[in-house]
Amino acid sequence: MFSRTKSPGERRRVYLSFMPAAPLVEWESLKRCSFDLDDGPFLGGPHFAANENNEYVIVSGDYPSALSELVEVLYRLNLVRSGYDMNANPDSLTDAAIKKMPDDRVRDFISQIVRADRLNEGTLQRFVNNMILLQLVRAAYDHEVFNAKHWPKALATLDEQHVAKGVVVRSRTNKIEGRTTGGRQKCPSTSCSGWLLGVLWETGQQMHICSEGWHFEPSTDEIHVIGGGDISARYISPKPWGRPPSPKSLWPSKVELNTKTGWKILPKS
Ligand SMILES: [Zn+2]
Predict the structure, then answer these.
(1) Tens digit of pLDDT for each residue in 91-141?
(2) Residues with CB under 5 A from ligand 1 (ion)
(3) Host H or E run for residue 50
(4) What does DSSP say about strands 222-225 and 168-170: parallel, antiparallel, or unpaired?
(5) In sequence order, which residues have a C-beta less than 8 Å from that of residue 84 and are 6 or more positions away?
(6) pLDDT class for 238, splitting at 50, 70, 90?
(7) Residue 209 C-alpha to ligand 1 middle, in angstroms?
């Protein structure tokens, strides 16, 4: 009785129990796409245009790679469902309404928009341009990744004002590395419920970057900037967002960097 073979599901559970933490990479891609689309140009919908024979034909709307990736990730995360409230009307949703919306309702609206595009091409582009789909996607991310205080559930805090020093931080383009300096405080922007995290970049620039523009990945124990400026993670207008990285000639030497908070190599205890 004890020697029966395990079903694939059971084997998987046993394997997963040894994993450090559930990866959130799909959620990271989802929110990253929302910022990439936010930065991108206004998306044209399907329209009539003349072809080489001078016949008017319907031309598909703009479909940048960030949009196709967004839709693929939405399906992979089961955020596009078959059973949803078909009467949900996303047209006049406001940012404030989306922020207060329960998760189930957010998923209804996302399902509604993505599925409506199959019957009425151009729906997706319209809901990217008016930001409603992007805000719904960020709300779904918040519900999955953040706790009630809007802090990443997977990122341990030491106390209200502190997190571990020395956590690896990567810039949005993944070209510049930083380390956490241990400080944490509420974001002072009135419209923002995020948290500022102290980072010392290898460029020598010390800053506090808001959790709205970065993601903590528990499977690699790294923080990635996903929105706004490359190292500032600042996405609220006006552009240019926050401080850009300084030129390489101004960066501190590795020896000097390694004497600073976050970069200092601590003796193993
Ligand atoms: Zn903020």
Answers:
(1) 989 999 999 999 999 999 999 999 999 888 999 999 999 999 999 999 999
(2) 187, 189, 192, 194, 210, 212
(3) strand 47-50
(4) parallel
(5) 107, 108, 111, 112, 115
(6) low
(7) 8
pTM of the model: 0.86
Task: Give CA angle at 178 (232, 184), nearest 5°.
Answer: 70
What is the whole-number distance in angstroms between the Cα of residue 236 and the centre of ligand 1?
8
Q: Is residue 178 a contact partner of residue 169, using CB atoms and an 8 Å limit?
A: yes
Give me the pLDDT at residue 13, please. 46
| CA 149 to centroid of ligand 1, rounded, Å | 13
> What does the domain layout of the chain look like in residue ranges?
21-145, 157-257
H or E element, residue 201 = strand 195-201
Between the CA of 39 and the centroid of ligand 1 the distance, in Å, is 17
pLDDT over 90 (residue 145): yes
**How many Å lie between the centroid of ligand 1 and the Cα of residue 179?**
19
